[in-house]
User: Fold this.
Amino acid sequence: MKHGDFNEEPASSVNWQVFRELTPYLWEYRGRVFLSLLFLVAAKGAILVIPFLLKYLVDSLDISKGADIAAAGLVALVVAFGLARFSSVLFGELRDTIFGRVTERAMRRIGLQVFRHIHALDLDFHLNRQTGGLARDIERGVTGISFLMRFFVFNIAPTIFEITMVVGILLWNYGLNYALVTLAAVTAYGVFSVRATEWRTQFVREANEADSSSNTRAIDSLMNFETVKYFTNEEFEARRYDHELEKWEVARRKNRLSVFTLNGGQALIIAVAQTTMIGMAAFQVRGGVISIGDFVLINQFMIQLFMPLGFLGFIYREIKGSMANIERMFDLLAVKTQIEDKPGAPDLQVERGSIQFDNVSFGYRPDRQILKGVSFEVPPGQKVAVVGASGAGKSTLVKLLFRFYDASGGAVRIDGQDVRDVTQHSLRAAIGIVPQDTVLFNDTIFENVRYGRPEAGDDEVWEAIRLAHLENFIGRLPSGGDTVVGERGLKLSGGEKQRVAIARALLKQPPILVFDEATSSLDSKSERAILAAIREIATGHTSLVIAHRLSTVVDADSIVVLDQGEVVEQGRHAELLAHDGRYAELWQIQQAEGQAPALESLTMALADPGTGGTA
Ligand SMILES: Nc1ncnc2c1ncn2[C@@H]1O[C@H](COP(=O)(O)OP(=O)(O)OP(=O)(O)O)[C@@H](O)[C@H]1O
Ligand SMILES: [Mg+2]
Assistant:
């Protein structure tokens, strides 16, 4: 399945495949499952005994038949009745308690599986995802799973067993008629329930979709809180949200009406059957064919039969509902990533850390080529800069290096190994990056830096903080390094975030470093300080530096000028100036603008579609 299919209408029939997926979880706790099944049988046994006890009680009290039971016998019957009642409930509770562990473990496993799976999906999926709706789909899916497991084990088979027993007992003791009525009722009930449930599944699905999309709206709107305020669009947002809520309301209403139809029909079938049987029994008692005790027994069996039958209808309905809930989660699990490790791919072996872009072509969409045959090399231990206008494809080069996407032509190699031939894990572990837009976790500054290498000790983290010139800033904060940065790091300034990103990359200590506009949000003074630090650290490392501001890369071993996805010039700063081409032109413009770098970054920000926030 491809990404695009994810939002399409899922298959309509019951997906029995789901049950197969559940089996391993049940097997893992087979002891518990078995024990709870024992309790289930015990509970059912106790329930089946009750009508007989009632019958004996009634018959032993029926003085017209010359009954004459001893007090002790009566007490024994009454106590047995009480015990049977209590144990049927007790065993049921024990069954649930013991089984709870099984479902919880399964929920945990599946939750984790989905989480891992989503993380394994490629960037393209994540750029297209709708976080709010996705979260809801998963939530419903996991709850649906636990529901299915419980009912799979406890209700379907046992209820069928119970119905068979009751029909058997009626047939054995009271002849064909009762059994026939019972069978007819059960059949009618079953057929009606299945039909009606199939019919109403569409409404469940509609309600789910409306629920997910209204949640998507809400989350997206809240994530863009600032933008909403800047443009005073609260009313607009509320209207859009309400529009989604309205769809949800309509879907729920249809859903509710369909439940009414279903339950009403089921109740009618049960009522007709019960009335018929009571009528039959009453006339038989009157004719002296059966005793009053038998009448009570038949009545009691009917109650006990139709209760689980009603339950079975409820279960079927819920199973269908759960299926509808789960199917979106399973659709999600079926989404394949476009970027996969080749079978048996080896780890990347970095010796000296050279990077080679060899005639690389790439487009995010087939109808728009972004890179057109880009070739250049970053020799081991050297620093190569890529410069060029906004949208030229600079950050795209980085995405290909990290293998977030695969090139459509040519190859990206590290020490001669094609990035497509090695494991993604080893590839990414070998590269440290300071990205163009740094997004932080809603955690402390200190922990955000440690994220570069989670097992790093406090000393190492402080060292990285010092090297990234974060120390002064942290010193000024009332809570220091323990300051929480807010969702996506919004409580930090752009420059502060960038320094956290630099500290992170430094802590990771990879052989290859990539800086994508690493200092673009810094003022000239901090920039100079950090550039010095970067230079210090980058010595001995292979580094790829992307920059708008040419002044930051004059010392590079080589500068690649990228224009509309093509390398137009390459050389050292002095060579390129002497060449008097594109680079020289850019240099002159920037020298003239030199006094107003803030204005420059503003125009860049406005022109850059990438910084708009993909959430
Ligand atoms: N996920 C995507 N899907 C489709 N198009 C994309 C995607 N990401 C980037 N692009 C497009 O690819 C082009 C190159 O983007 P890229 O981010 O590489 O530019 P850049 O050179 O880094 O620009 P800047 O200097 O502004 O950061 C842009 O025109 C952009 O709109
Ligand atoms: Mg970029």
Summary: Residues 1-13, 596-615 have pLDDT under 50 and may be disordered. The longest helix spans residues 234-286.
